[in-house]
Every structure is written in structure tokens, then in C-alpha cells.
Amino acid sequence: MHGWIVPPPKEPAKSREEFKKEREEKVRWLIRHGYLRSERIRDAVLKVPREDFIPLPYRDYAYLEVPLPLPGENATISCPHSYPLFYEALGLDEGHRFLEVGLGSGYGAALAREIVGPYGLVVSLEIDPLTFQFARKNLENAGYEDMILVKGDGGLGYPERSPYDRICITAACLEPPPPLLEQLKTGGRLKLRR
Hints:
It is built from six helices and seven strands. Helix 6 links the parallel strand 6 and strand 7. The longest helix is centred in the first third of the chain and has 17 residues. The model has no long low-confidence stretch (mean pLDDT 95).
């Protein structure tokens, strides 16, 4: 996590009500700074408790604009603004078939599930086994069981449920791997982190 100052681990002390207030303030901040425009994405960020997707020693920092460590090799949960930044650029919306490369904590998949709604599809891939287990447990605890989670190389995608309307590569990547381009629906959108 070069260039970021990660707060020290500590016992979580904030209440559900305090987290709810922080989440609401974060949404106002995201709107003010131009990261958040879509009503569906706004509603998803308000609904999904980000703190439930963060390891306990870092939970009180859930809404700070810093990446936080996750179980696994060099795994982090991205800054809160990163998710609407990606999903707004993708135009992620109701009914979309969505492939996420880099499950991380599961928070992004939970947001995507809320955004695409009951007729959409969320498939998320994670290569690190510790990170994958952490995310799967978080999603199960939060009640998100209606998505496909795959432990494996995200560069291969998941052709079994392709084509996808939207693909998001949250792991650092210079160029999209060819299998992902092949799994993108004609007219679909792909966004990657460089």
C-alpha cells in the first residue's frame, strides 16, 4: 500500500448507529465530489454496511479514504470512493450481467448485487484463497447468497455465464486479458485499474 498511511489496528468501538451516520455522510461527500450520480448506486452505498466487510482491527476506519488491509497476500479493500467511481463509469444498472475480477472483501460484489437487482447477475473472481474465504464469509453473513463466487485466476474470466454487460477489473492490470474481452457482450463496457 505505497503512499497510503494506514491507521493502526484497534478494537472496534463504534456502534451501528455511528456507522450509519458515517455512511450517510460519506454518500453526501461522494455526491459533493462528483463520484456519485446514479440513484441506484447511491441507494446501494446507503444500504450495504461497508464496515461488515472489513477485518475487526480496522472496522472503525471503514469510511476513511484509505485502502485497508484484508487477509491474503497484499490484499486490500479499496477506498470508499473507488466503488462508485468504477460503477458510474461502467454505467452499471438494473438487469446487467456483471463480472468482477478481484472479489477482495466482497463489498464491491454486494454493492453490485444491489445495483443490478433481482434480474441481474453478479459473478466475482478472486485468486487468493484467504481473501476469497474472507469475502465469502462476509457475503454469507450479510445475506448475499444469490451471486456466483469463483476462486481462481480472474484473467480467465468465467465463460460459463458469459456474455457480460459489464466487466470490472479491480486488480492492477495494464491491458484487459483476451478471455475477458471475449466474454464481454457486444456493446458492453469494461473498466480496469491501471
